[in-house]
Structure formats: C-alpha cells, structure tokens
Amino acid sequence: MTNINLVSEYKCFDGKLGFYSYFSTTSNGEMRFAVYQPPQATQKPVPVLYFLSGLTCREDNFMIKAGAQKWASKYGLMLVAPDTSPRNTGIAGKNDQWDIGTGAGFYVDATEEPWRSHFQMYSYIIQELPTVINTKFPTEPNQTSIFGHSMGGYGGLMCAMRNPQLYKSVSAFAPIVAPIECSWGQKAFSPYLGNNQKTSHEYDASQLVQKVGYHSSILIDQGTSDQFLTGQLLPNVFEQACGKIKQPLNFRYQAGYDHSYYFICTFIADHIHHHVKYLGLID
Amino acid sequence: MTNINLVSEYKCFDGKLGFYSYFSTTSNGEMRFAVYQPPQATQKPVPVLYFLSGLTCREDNFMIKAGAQKWASKYGLMLVAPDTSPRNTGIAGKNDQWDIGTGAGFYVDATEEPWRSHFQMYSYIIQELPTVINTKFPTEPNQTSIFGHSMGGYGGLMCAMRNPQLYKSVSAFAPIVAPIECSWGQKAFSPYLGNNQKTSHEYDASQLVQKVGYHSSILIDQGTSDQFLTGQLLPNVFEQACGKIKQPLNFRYQAGYDHSYYFICTFIADHIHHHVKYLGLID
C-alpha cells in the first residue's frame, strides 16, 4: 500500500479535517484529497460520504465553503472530497482552458491521447480512492454514499448508477445531467473519449438512468437563478428520463438560488440527512 | 448620502448576501463591505451584528467560511463584514508587508504620515460604516453588536469598550488582546500612532478593560493549538485585567483548535447565540 502524506490538519466540530497527497497509480502522478473524520471515528469505523466537486475546484473548496462538517460530526459520518483531476501531468495544454484538462476531469476514464495516461478519474473515484480511504481511515467499507456539485453532481450520479452495489445513496447540487447534450460535456468528452458514442452514453446520467435506474430515491437541488440552468445543466432531460422508467426522484427547484456555494451551504443539511438515512445512521 | 454599488449578490439561507463598494470619505477612497440580510429583513427592520476580520482578510472571508448565515437567517439578524483596511490608497509600500498597511488596518485612526490620510479604520467602523448601513439597509440602528477574529477580535473588543452605548454585546475568536505587548501590535501601532503612549493605550483591549470595563459579559473562544497563542494573542493578559475589575468574562479555551476558520465555524453558533440574546431576539 502506498504511503499518504498529511499536508495539513485542522480540528473542526470536534473531529479532524486532513488534506492529503500521495502517488496515485491510476492517475500516474500525485493526487490530493481531503478527509473529515467525525469524532465518532476515534471509537469505531464509520460510514463514508464522497463529495465530487465542480469545474476548477480542488479538494478544499467543499471543506471550506459547504458547512458539511457540522452535520458529519453530529451523525458520525466521514466526508471525503477528492480533487477534480490530476495536476502537473506534463500534458501539453493541460492548463490552457478551465473546462478541459486540469480541474476538469469530468470523472471519466480517458481513452484518447494525450489524456489517457493520467486522466482516469472514473477508476480513481470508484476503485483506487476508496481502497486508499478504507485502508488508511476507520471506515465501514460497505457503508458508502456519494454526492457532488455541477460536474461533480453529474459524476456522483454516474458513478452511483454504474456501481449501485458500491453506493447506498446519491444526491446532487445543480448537476450536469446530460453531458452529451451540452457544450461543457461535448467539449470534454470528445478529446477524452474520442467519438465513441457507446462510451459517451455510458457516462451520461440521463442515458444511464433509462438503462439501469437506481435502487434508491435520488435527491437533486437546482437553483432557478443558476446562470447555467438552461445552457448546460438541462435538468428537464434527467427528469424526463427518470419519468420514463418511474425512477424515484426528489427534484427540488430552489427559487432564486444560483450555482454558488451559497446555494450549496443552504441545503447541505438536507443532503447529509438524505444520505445518513440510507447509511443507517438515523431511522 | 453617497451611493453604494452592488458588486455581487447571492441568495443564501432564504436571505440575501450582497458585496458592496462605495467612496468612503473617512478612508478617502473606495471601501468594500458585505451584508447578509436575513429573510425577516424584507418585513421589518432587524438588529445588526458586525464582524471584524483578521490580518490579510477581505470583506468576503467571513461570509464564505464562518457558516454564520444559517444562524442569522434563523434569528433574523443582519450580518455586516467590512474589509480590514483601505486598498489602492497610493501610499508607498502599502502592500509590502502582510502585517501593516493593506489588509492590516488594526482598526485605529492613524495619526502619522503616510497612513493618516486613508487609514482611519476606527472612525470608519464606529461612525461612517454604521451610518451607511443604517441608511441603506432595514436595520434597527440602536440594536447593534460586534465581534471579530484575531486582529478583528481585538478591534471588536476595543470598539465596544470605547463605545458601550453603540454595542449591546461583544465577543471574539482568538483576539489580539494586548496589542501594545506583542510584536504584531507594536509593529503596526508605531507607524500608525507614533510613539504616543496614551493613544496606544486607548487602543489596547487589556488596558481599556481596566479603565472602563464593559456593561455585559464578554465571550471569547481561544484554541489551545493556536500557533499565535503565546507569541501574539496573550490571553492571560486580558484575563488578568478582567479579573482585577471583576469584568464578567466567559473565556473558553477550546482544546486542540487552531487559528483558522475551521475553529471559527465550529463555535460560530455559540457566538451568534450570545449576541441575539443581548439584541433581544431570544429570551
């Protein structure tokens, strides 16, 4: 097992927030992640909730801005926030655009050059990172859920639907539910995945849900004043897809909220509550 | 009355968070501040709680990181967070050091050149800014309290003790309670105030409390793992000063916490609760 390096650590809500780096074999380079261990974790293994962040974010944004630690501390839940892509990969042009390359991994396993040697975020999220977390931290490895924001909201939905056995529940804030139908998704999928429609569809939340559904109700919050609502997020595509297969969905339009963490922090307690219910921490 | 410019606005916990700029006559230049208006403020005037930030901070840090909006929304409390100094003043060397000049106003009225023409933070905080806030926002102008962090914790204590009629209550996170006895304070007070000991003492929280006391109990939280505890913050100086005059003081050492916003967010609810009690929002 690889070593992980503690970059910094903070006491927070009686638990421990740590930022870590290590050499990721999947990403073929350094990866960073943040872990909040609730106070209960000093006594016994605890369930884990993964948060996948949006475009340009790092492993720290969620821990700084979302206000989730309060609730994780209350319920005894570990929080894990990975970075949104490998960094310092040496790939030419990796930092040239904010919506592809560094900070924009889109949670897919790239099949194309020059990305494929590092950008394997799907495998990283569903396999390597959980192995690291379950080895190095006091987790209940079979009690795991996932959620995220924007690109990470899409990532959480997609990872959960493709791996229903790994995640007890899923929720999202303002997710990119139909990446193959919006310019953000198209711009990233084409260089990462080539023009393989089958592969692209397997990474598209709205396509996926029609094929495989999900075993528990999906919670989504979406601000009505979100600047990306009609151009990129396309919530109606996912709502219609869920409707076709009668997928249980609690899709909440939140009047006047935008795409920011001020929206996320307002509803974070509801999302944590959704997950701790499925993780058996409350009735 | 001067115009204020809305820089950006976000819905948050059913209220409205705005970032503003305007020309400050006291500061002789642009100043920025943040205001969180709770949902109750659309119906009636509400009390105001000012938060003074620490060295290097701007008007946004508190609103991004402290998690206070949740509680302000619950109780019907307006939050105001000013910047920590004028910026873009044209003063030579203003940005050369992080602990004097830009981002380090220390909440004093500078008497010395080159600072005195812009760095009038004491008058700005106790006079000009409240006038702007009470004119432009739905406040109860006589229901005001103040708190802060580090340099701003000191600033809140000092402003409250020098103006007990303006502030119903005061609290602080890891305040610099004795600026005249630590290097941060000495380094700033000397160029801002010259070598006038009387003036310096009037800005020192531990000197002030012995002379004037305060009309309500002071709440202070201090992490025991704070990296600045013994070198700069000197809490025992303030505790001894309060002891001498039997000033009611709830000084809480919080085991294992450091100087960061992860410490502040952990205890923010207690501080808001302290203030809303004195502001008459709860019994």
TrEMBL record, chains A, B:
Biological process, per Gene Ontology: formaldehyde catabolic process
Family annotation (PANTHER family): S-FORMYLGLUTATHIONE HYDROLASE
UniProt EC number: 3.1.2.12
Catalyzed reaction equations: S-formylglutathione + H2O = formate + glutathione + H(+)
Residues forming the catalytic site: 150, 226, 259
GO cellular component: cytosol
GO MF entries: carboxylic ester hydrolase activity; S-formylglutathione hydrolase activity
The protein's name in its UniProt record: S-formylglutathione hydrolase
Species in which this protein is naturally found: Nostoc azollae (strain 0708)
